[in-house]
Amino acid sequence: MMQLLEKLCNLCGAAGREDKVRDFILSEIEGYADIKVDNLGNIIADKKGKKRAKIKVVADAHMDEVGIIVTHIDEGGFVKFATCGGIEIPALLGKRFVFEKGAVGVVCSKPTHLCDAAEKKVLPKLDSLCIDVGAKDKKEAEEMVCVGETAVFVPNFEKIGNLICAKALDDRVGCTVLIKLLKEEAEYDFTAVFSVQEELGLRGAKVAAFSTNPDAAIIVEGTTAADVPESSGANRVCHVGDGAVLSFMDRSTMYDKKLYDDGRRLADQNGIKCQTKSVVAGGNNAGAYHIARGGIRTAAVSLPCRYIHSSSSVASPSDAENVYRLVKLLIEKLAGGEI
């Protein structure tokens, strides 16, 4: 599972530019499901099980990752940009990005020794940042990058102790889980959706939720873990190493209470490490699914990730395994009409 996750994390696919990720996933799942790609770029894979499902279940993971998009190239060859998804200023400063055509650049800002006392006390504004691609002037820079081109953090999958560190764990871990499930024998029919543009406002999920029209949806995600120094109690949100994360509410979804309770119960009964997201914050594709059409029962099962939406998210392989086990069990129990 970790080898597949590494391959996925090392692919570059900013929101709206998921082509390389989509092509890889299609090559992995070919022959394991009935597959189509919709007009927005979502992959919809219908998996045949040993039994016909009593209710239609969709499991969704998004292919895109946070990134940047070129808005302007100045006369000195420096690149101005906007973000594709939520990246905080501290996660940008000094970081290397790789562009679609292969150019690499580093985010730069006004040097500290040139800042006055007031400037040193605050973070720079996004519009004051630029990317140095090593060009001597605008003409040379335009040969390397172009306006409208996206870039993502330079791939850097590594093992650190017993954990993994990489860009795009949100949500290549979800894609890894769904690929694994599609390649295995399924007890019941289900549909896997690999969605686009989650980081831009759940756009792919809005389309997929409408077209697939499921009775229940399981969103497989990465979520913020704040189990670091200077954080305590509920503010830690969830803990790396404590298993899969179930949510009861976030900024876009009030989750189905019975499905949340059933998820906790099934985890306990089957020896699956599981924890609750303790802070009502953030959001994911559940925000699109649960209010689509006539309403869809929805649960989110997430991997706890430190430093999410950065160049170096940190997570536990054992947590990823528990996410996989819980998602598989939820699909089977939902499709079989048991919960």
Plain-language structure description:
The protein is an alpha+beta fold and 339 residues long. The chain folds into two domains: 2-65 and 167-335, Aminopeptidase; 68-153, Peptidase M42, domain 2 (Elongation Factor Tu (Ef-tu), domain 3), CATH 2.40.30.40. The protein is built from ten helices and 17 strands.
Coarse morphology:
globular
Helix content: 25-40%
User: Unreliable runs, pLDDT <50, ≥5 residues?
Assistant: none
How many β-strand stretches?
17
Mean pLDDT: 95
List descriptors.
single chain, 339 residues, alpha+beta, Aminopeptidase, Elongation Factor Tu (Ef-tu), domain 3, eight-stranded mixed β-sheet, six-stranded antiparallel barrel, 10 helices, 17 strands, 25% strand
Topology:
Elements: H1 2-9, H2 19-29, E1 34-37, E2 43-47, E3 57-62, E4 67-73, E5 78-84, H3 89-92, E6 96-99, E7 104-108, H4 117-120, E8 130-132, H5 138-142, E9 150-153, E10 158-160, E11 163-166, H6 169-183, E12 190-195, H7 203-212, E13 216-224, E14 244-246, H8 257-269, E15 274-276, H9 286-289, E16 297-305, E17 313-315, H10 317-335
Parallel strand pairs: 3-12, 3-13, 13-16, 14-15
Antiparallel strand pairs: 1-2, 2-12, 4-5, 4-9, 5-8, 6-7, 6-9, 7-8, 10-11, 11-17, 14-16
Helix pairs in contact: 1-6, 6-10
